[in-house]
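Person: At home tonight, work slowly through the protein below, taking as long as you need, and write a paragraph about the fold.
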Amino acid sequence: MNDISIASLFDQYFSVIPANTEQLIKKVYNIRHQVYCEELGFEAKRANHLEFDDYDLRSSHCLLFHKPSQTYAGCVRLIMADPHESEAKFPFEITTGTHLKWGTEPPTELERCHYAETSRLAITSQFRRRRGETTTPDGGSEAIENASTDERRSFPSVALGLYLAATAIAIDKNLEGVFAIMEPRLARQLRRFGFLFEQVGEIIDHRGKRAPFIINTKQVSTTLKAEYLELLTNIQHQVHSNTQIAR
């Protein structure tokens, strides 16, 4: 098994699907409702079983499809700067406060448009249970740390795949960096792959202990370990494709 690359193993199990149709966007909202509203109680339940907000109007979305079970394992969105309101904040700014490591303080319109935020990363309960963590939408840091060597190779982190999908979109849009709110422990685990998130604000109590981080999308190709760079490249190709899974 060790002769097979992570990228090849990931391809055996998963496909990254750009949510670029009304049907696929609805699936994203449904997964988010299942995870954030029904399972974790972070948001109020809705009669239509779709969780969405105003940020979705300026977001790109991806789904992660699990081939063996023919089900969606999770989703993620990348929130862009508001094209109509230059001073409109990203969600992480509202949640964590204004004392952040931008190039300028506060960011200028020109600077803000070069950034995005990874948000609403959600993994279905089936796959959070596979990874030993059911209390966080992204599977938590335990999803990586407690996996055996063989399991980690043959069943790569769902969260990692989704973060790489968001990064692929950001690279495609020529963005400078992507922000995310996450557990500091998860950020440390991601660094083991060469996925270098830098903490840019204080730890806060937001559905657990979390902090704002940023990753420099211009440097990802030089910091990722070779096998994960190959995985990112494969995911970039999938993001570019119009492949849709019939349901």
